[in-house]
């Protein structure tokens, strides 16, 4: 999970934006030996912007997953969206 968080764009976090600027924010982090989960806030006042943020996170997850699974059984990463 830390590998994913560290790769989030630093210029679209709540502390670096103001007003109606879009941001991505890891809100709830939970973990154990067997499972880790992260709930994110995507904020943008344009639907296309939310799609772009989701694509950014999907790319980060894909990159991290490919690095972590080299020579090991596949880890499962599931990205779900909620309104």
Can you tell me about this structure?
The longest helix has 22 residues, at 47-68. The chain has one domain: Alpha-Beta Plaits, CATH 3.30.70. The protein has helices at 2-6, 47-68, and strands spanning 23-31, 36-43. The relative contact order is 0.17. The model has no long low-confidence stretch (mean pLDDT 86). It has a two-stranded antiparallel sheet. A hairpin with a 4-residue loop joins strand 1 and strand 2. It is built from 2 helices and 2 strands, in the order H-E-E-H. It is an alpha+beta fold and 83 residues long. It is elongated.
Radius of gyration (CA) equals: 14 Å
Task: Tell me roughly what share of residues is in helical segments.
Answer: 25-40%
How many domains is the backbone divided into? 1
Separation of the first and last Cα atoms: 23 Å
Structural class: alpha+beta
How much beta, percentage-wise?
15-25%
Widest sheet: strand ordering = 1-2
Shape: elongated
Mean pLDDT: 86
| Sequence of secondary-structure elements | HEEH
Question: For the report, how would you describe the main beta sheet?
Answer: 2 strands, antiparallel
| Topology, number of strands | 2
Which architecture name does CATH use? 2-Layer Sandwich
CATH topology: Alpha-Beta Plaits
Residue windows where pLDDT falls under 50 for at least 5 positions: none
